[in-house]
Structures are given as C-alpha cells and as structure tokens.
Amino acid sequence: MSLPTLETLVSYLTIVAAVMGALLAALWLSLVIWAFRDMRARSRDPFAQILAALLVAALPVVGIVIYFILRPPETLAEAYERALEEEALLQEIEERPHCPGCSRVIDDKWLLCPYCHTRLKKACPDCNSLLELQWNLCPYCGNHAVDPYKANVVDTAVAPPEPLPEPEESETESTVNPVGETEL
Ligand SMILES: [Zn+2]
Ligand SMILES: [Zn+2]
Fold this sequence. Notes:
The chain is mainly alpha-helical. It has two domains: 7-77, no CATH class; 89-162, no CATH class. The chain has five helices and two strands, in the order H-H-H-H-E-E-H. The chain has a two-stranded antiparallel sheet. A hairpin with a 6-residue loop joins strand 1 (121-123) and strand 2. Helix 2 (46-58) runs antiparallel to helix 3. It is rod-shaped and about 115 Å long. Bound molecules: zinc ion (2 copies). One zinc ion binds next to loops. The site of one zinc ion has 8 residues, from loops.
C-alpha cells in the first residue's frame, strides 16, 4: 500500500474545490434569480427588479439580508386582494339603506327618519308588520286593504272583500265529454 503522492493529493483537492465552487456559484445564481423573481412579484418597476438582483449578486450573503429588510412588505397579488376587500367593504357601507329625505344611514326597521322626520315605512293595520310605503298588500298576513303610500291605519272592515276565484272544477268538467254516446 503506497501513500498518495503530493501531486495526486493536490489534484484531488482541486477537484473538490472546483465542485464546491460550482455549487456555491449555482447557489449564488439561484439567489440572484430568486431575488429578481421575488421583486417582480412585489413591484412592476423594472428598475427595482434589476436593482434587487444586482444587490444580491454584488453582496452574496449581506445582499440577501438587505433585500429582506428593504423589499415591499406585500406582493402585487396580496395588494390586489386587499384592494378588492376594501372595495367590497366600501360597497357594503354604500348598500346600507339611506333616508330619501336627508340621505343619512338608517335602520330598515325604522318607521320614520329620526333626523328629518321623513316617513320610511308603514305598519300593517292587521299584523303590525313593517311594510314598504308603495305596497298595497301585506305579504306577512295577506291583508289586501293596505293603501299604497298611505301611512295611516286602514280600516279593514270598510274594504270590499276580495272576489273568490271561480273554482276550476266546473271548467274542467264542461270540457270533458262523457265517453260513449257521441263517439259511437
Ligand atoms: Zn332623513
Ligand atoms: Zn299584515
């Protein structure tokens, strides 16, 4: 068994160093690409994207730390999502009922606007449910004697009773011919 000569030892070390160097170079390159892509997800400015890649390329370890400190806190997708949420929230506020008189936000259970005294709803004279002013019947109890736009209590006894619809049985009976006599 012979000891390796100095020359072979040096060549082995050279190979190891070359492999290590290649790995480090690959790591450095991937970090530069990552910084560029990460900045591209956070900023539309091409100058900022190139600057982030150059920073990580020029300062291999320190650069990535500086980039982590300085990069925009949220990505473009996150910013877009947040903008959508804010818009939805704003729309929800806008969709809340407003007083037609003073356009203040009102509760949909109010009969009158407490600010400008505009009538908002009327109560059903029968079941006391809250009705829209333009309705002429109560959808809760079926009272047909509710005056549209009239907020006062309607006397249901005065209203004429609804005519009952004709029973459909007589109509169907007349159309059906008794089978037998005419056919033969
Ligand atoms: Zn009002
Ligand atoms: Zn009613």
